[in-house]
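dumping the sequnces here before i forget
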Amino acid sequence: MSSAEATAEGGHDKGKAREAFRAVTRDISWVAEAPKPHKAWLAALAISSAMLMVGLYSIYVLVTTGIGVWGNSNTVGWAWDITNFVWWIGIGHAGTLISAVLYLTRQTWRVSINRAAEAMTIFAVMCAGLFPLLHTGRPWFAFWMIPHPNDMGMWPQFRSPLMWDVFAVSTYATTSILFWYMGLVPDLATFRDRCAARGQNLKALIYGIFSLGWRGSARNWHRYERAYLILAGLATPLVFSVHSVVSFDFATSQLPGWHTTIFPPYFVAGAIFSGFAMVLTLMLPLRHLFNLKHIIKESHVEAMCKIMLATGMMVGLAYATELFIAWYSGNLYERFAFANRALGPFWWSYFAMVGCNVLAPQFFWSQKIRRSPVIIFVLCIFINIGMWFERFVIIATSLARSFLPAQWSYFSPTRYDVGLFVGTLGLFFTLFLLFFRYVPVIAISEVKGAMPEAHAGKEHH
Amino acid sequence: MAHHDHNEPAEPAHGNGDGELYGVLAEFDTPGELVEAARKVRDAGYTEFDCFSPFPVHGIDEAMGIKRTILPLLVFCGGFAGTVGGLLLQWWCNAYNWPWNISGKPAWSIPANVPIAFETTILLSVFTSFFGMWILNKLPQVWHPFFRLERFGRVTDDAFLLGIEAKDQRFDLARTTKLLQDAGALAVENCHLETDPSRKNMPKWITALIVSSTAFALIPFAVAAKARNSHSSQPHIHIFPDMDFQPKYKADTASDFFPDGRANRGEVPGTIARGNLAPDELFYRGREFPADRSQYNECKDLAADQPCWTRGFPQQIDVSKAFLERGQNRYNIYCSACHGHDGEGKGMIPQRMAELGGAWAARDLVTTQTVITMPNGQLFNTISNGFNTMAGYAAQIPPVDRWAIVLYVRALQRARNALTDDVPPAEQNNAASQQLKAPEPTK
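..and the predicted 3d for all of it:
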């Protein structure tokens, strides 16, 4: 489809606008309607579900044995588990940012990627939630964190940042799912109607149940748009609050390297940075494989690169500020914590972090690089790795060298640490691939609403 | 759908399950034309009509005269309930029902409760806007008469439709159709209600599925309710047993395994725990084996391998003022409750028992002749192992402290039975010393 020219000058090419809308429906539905899945899709699903199996086995060993199978120790009590938790939550934030913040700021280019980005958010939050859940050791008692009358007469300690985390992350997950689902309903109705037209009754029934009998009524659209705007308005402060609360887990403690007020903005910037990197990691190959380059345009990719350049430099500024404050504060322990962070036993992780997060995005200054998908993809992988190291650096280096030298130790992951992380990657990609095959991957109705044809024929009153 | 493109304002064709006329449905070419048509229909005085489009068409709300939804107001109320509810929840749990004392901080302090109140505000606002929107839209609604029309299946793709219901007061099939055609409709279709009962009613198996799954879903609640309101001799079900049940014996339980039927295993005869050998007879038991027994009244006739109570102190004991003070300290802690601080057997417990009308005899240690003449070793043995109703204190008081108490009891006896001659010459003439007299022997 080459986007049909708007029938701007009153003249009537009857059916031309409809033709353009039809083409959008067809080009997006094609991904799910192709009778046989793409070979690359099948290969990717095979790999990701194998990774998921590794994760399930690691969880089995972990739950039946105890968290001693991880490399965590009395000194480094939070390690890969919390690193992965923060990493995944951060990745999820780009989805909310694209769907809510860019909606409020009227960035119409978001419509090509918001659906996939929101799906990414939900799957990333699912992966993130696994880690603290399993870190409790007895995950079947996790419901104790929800306030409920019980025969012990106990209530949660609401003034603990870990409790704030429970509320923030579960509110975030709920909001993300509802927001995503609400956006899906009109497009699921599209799938319903297409399946019904082709006589696929079972599929039509299933899509029909989930589309709630949507019929595109203007009176329904009116309330729908209002609700969408409200949800976007609610999700925006929510996404900032979630990563701020995650950073409170560290910032409200008194450990040098954690006890700092810069954490909330620094964490939020890092979350957006890593989230956009993950959006592009997912969307660049899929856009290529499924012929969606005319919908997810080059300019959209370029805009995301610019966001990564900006947030990458915010993160770099935060690193520099931390070092400056450590020196300027004159606090012996603070100075030691940062000298140790860069030059101590985990020096390699610090330099991996700075290299991937501060240096790699500098390439995005060049428009040529912002337009070459292969280089963008490679840089995004670097950023994903760098942001993982950022969380590892904050957590592990600070804990391994706390106040008492007698307690100092080193952290080495075990195979079950690695296995669970690989497993969440598997879960994430498996869910994302299934989403890509069975759910409208691009917000069909929003893309149509953003087309010039959507405003055609209004001139002649 | 070409055969529909020519409108037939004639009588509704019955058959094909067509029943009563529900309304008419017109299709327009562009969103803009739909808006214009909607305005004309509204201006003509129709109220029971709606537009249908694949995406929200800009300007149609105003054209159709749709009133602003009250959803934002509902969301505000929901969010307010979230704030208040979140604060109340935290206050009730942490400050009222079970106040937490954390480093002496106040049980209720707003700043630390803000994050959760914020999250509950967002959560309830989100619920209100999401569920409120569907409820106000009267969705989910599984069936609508327009779904019967093939054209309506394209409303989620490329169709811009306007439907007018027959129940509208101004509805007249011919005139309404004409209005829509004049507004530029590509086609106008009649829509009839379903009469075919097999399509009209929900299939029986779906009804059966809903009823039976609802019934099954109630079973767990019924079982839980019964369990909560009845008694059972069976232990409750442990879904997650954790470490509640371990394959081990607990103290003093029965065992099928051992011939004596007891889980307890006594130690092998002659076993002595580490550090409990206590080989020093004199120090640990106050006994010695003197060769010359002429001074030992109670055992002068016994054989040389039979022990006698020692008269002195073991060599480990340094009889000094500091040691005596240690003895006073230990005596006041362990002994004075019954024997009294002065050793006369009038401690708080015998006094209190006398007041209550009971009897609690504690021996007078300072005037009873047998105690005064008792050898140190025997006194030590009495402290260690008890005498009559007095329990032994070996478990509470280490041997060296028991010797200190022996020394202190000796000091009490000496003080109680002092004669004027015992007072230093410089003090002999003061009033207190004059009262000293020889003790009257008791039994």
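Chain B touches chain A through 74 residues (CB under 8 Å).
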